[in-house]
Amino acid sequence: MVKKWWLHSIKIILLISLIIPILAGCAVSDTVKEQYPLESVNGSGSQTSYVYRAADQTVPEVAKQLVDKKKPEQQSPESTERMFLVYSDEVIQIQQATDDPADTLIEIDSKEYVRNNYSSSFLEGYLLASVLSDLFDNGRYGHGNYRGYSQKDVYKPQTTYHKPTNQDLKKAPPMTVNRTGSIFKRSKNADSSAVGSGSGSSSGSTGKVVTGGSSSSKKSGSVFTKPKKSTPKIRKGSGRISRRR
């Protein structure tokens, strides 16, 4: 009984050890990529900034969705204009779109991007001093003047934003990518010669499944053939029954 309980406990521990890393590896940015279209990109390598647009949603609404998905290390006070969420490997700035106040922009910055572009004094109004100290390595970084995508033309980052390229879309694919597919239902009158031909085109390799007794069994490309039935042959007067070889 004790041995059974011990084995059961080990299984539970192993299961938890597998689930925790998976949950920890699910970044909030993955959720944003799946739900909102990518609008602009800046930086490369470890210094990246991706901007997404949440149409007809307020800043607090978007912030709540992300916090519910994964709790941040720190969340700035609720605001209708700008909020920050700090995670272990990224900082998310949620801001009202200047070109359309009904929309919200979600800017996902790597911590390296924040260190090299943002001003620590600007973030003092949103984040705790302890968080800023860790983020900017005790004042080693944080000497930029960038304040977010909505003000990029005034407080410019080190590199300029651009519309997402095909390579950018591969790295951070938006949910708005068109996807098409077809489902074909087998018909009772379907032509068996089309089996294995893919789209039905004459190009490419094809294969067929045929049965014995059909004239098509002589064609090349057959996969299966029905073996010929062999009946015993009786030789008169021999007293023996032998099979045809």
UniProtKB/TrEMBL annotation:
PROSITE patterns reported for this sequence: PROKAR_LIPOPROTEIN
Pfam family, one: DUF4247
TM region(s), chain numbering: none
Start-end of Low complexity biased regions: 192-223
InterPro entries (UniProt xref): DUF4247 (IPR025341)
Region (Disordered) residue spans: 146-245
Compositional bias segments (type: Basic residues): 226-245
Biased composition (Polar residues): 157-167
Superkingdom, taxonomy of origin: Bacteria
Protein name as annotated: DUF4247 domain-containing protein
